[in-house]
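pipeline stage [seq->struct] | target=Glycosyl transferase family 2 | organism=Anaerocolumna aminovalerica | residues=319
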Amino acid sequence: MNKVNIIMAAYNGEKYIKDQIESILHNSFENWMLWIFDDGSKDQTESIIKKYIQQYPQKIRYYRNNTNKGVTRNFLEGVKLVTQLNNQEENEKKHNHYYMFCDQDDVWMGEKIYKTLKQMKKAEKRYGSEKPVAVFTDAIVVDEKLNIQQSSFYKTSNLNTNRRDLAHMLMENKLIGCTIMFNGALADRLDVIPKNARYHDWWIALIASAIGHITYLKEGTLLYRQHENNVVGNQSFLTYVKNRISNLHKQKEILDITIKQAREFYNIFEKDLTGNKKALVYDFVHIKENSWFMRRKLILSKGYLKTGLIRNIGLLLLI
């Protein structure tokens, strides 16, 4: 039987976490386990969670980190621990375990788990369950009171969900963490936790695009809540452009961090990369060692591109 492991990263989430837990409890797919990793909350988050554990002791697990890890490491280390625990269980089959990231402040639609798993099963039927597979979906953007602001995150952000190949993923992440599901074959690849991953969802995207597959469900499966305390949130394309123009120095630093992420990815997965994909990551990692002309030639010829003309003009100026 398929089992879905929901990995929630929590931190000072007392304001919204009840809404999120309730939405998971009311999902149509019932064979799930919610694993909550608290990154050192100082509010009532822990007491709220423990009340739910008393009501649903077989459905919710709670871990409190000794030190604050930050959202990316909290998610990835959470998956690693859950994977290890699942693999230790007798008679468990890895290909029956699936994993989803969960933010503490969103609200899941009633069939989010079922519909995402259905898409996952289609992908595994096509590519094989032994291959790392990731599924991501759209999200409905709402304000803190759940009033709809935008019906599609991707339409608002002007991100091309069709550009899911490795070259594009090296330069620009397309996956929203709170919409992702990935299979056991991908979860097993998190035995080494990166130090330089920019975001947990980006790291998953790199693994899937490099040694597996990514598929997209064009449907909003959750209410993606935007509020003043979002770690990473939605922004319009116009806001994105304004932010980039106003701080070019910072954008160069971000590009360097993106390359640093790719370098660690290459070091960890070099043996798993084959042929063209190995060369693709290697050339990206070393792109700044080339001349002014060659850097831009590599961007265009290899396809290390972002979504849209404006973003790519900015990229060519910065590189």
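stage status: PASS
auto-comment: The radius of gyration is 19 Å. The chain has a mean pLDDT of 93.
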